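Suppose you are handed a protein chain with no further information: no name, no annotation, nothing but its sequence. What can you learn? This example shows the usual starting point.
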Amino acid sequence: MIIATRVLKLKDPRGDIEILIRIFAPEKLEIDWGCQFDIDWPDEKLTRIAVGIDAIQALELAMKLIGAQIYTSDYHEAGKLEWFELGQGYGFPVPNGIRDLLVGDDKKYL
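A reasonable first move is to predict its three-dimensional structure. Written in structure tokens, the prediction is:
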């Protein structure tokens, strides 16, 4: 079950391309919990599962993994990806090791 979505825009000379992000409800695994997320990049759909001790940790890790995927993407590096405005961030936290990549409001508030 999808519990949250966000649409980013990839600025393209032919027009904006929507990048849909879906977060699914955490589910109990054999021992831990898993939280699936999808990112519909223009060239492929990325599907991953973040695993945590409980549902909250799985959801938190999924959010950070989404942030890591976005901030380490070629689209971000090229400066062509936006949520509300170019350079203002995407509203996802990232793991501590790549916090230096944050921009705009993400850098200020996350």
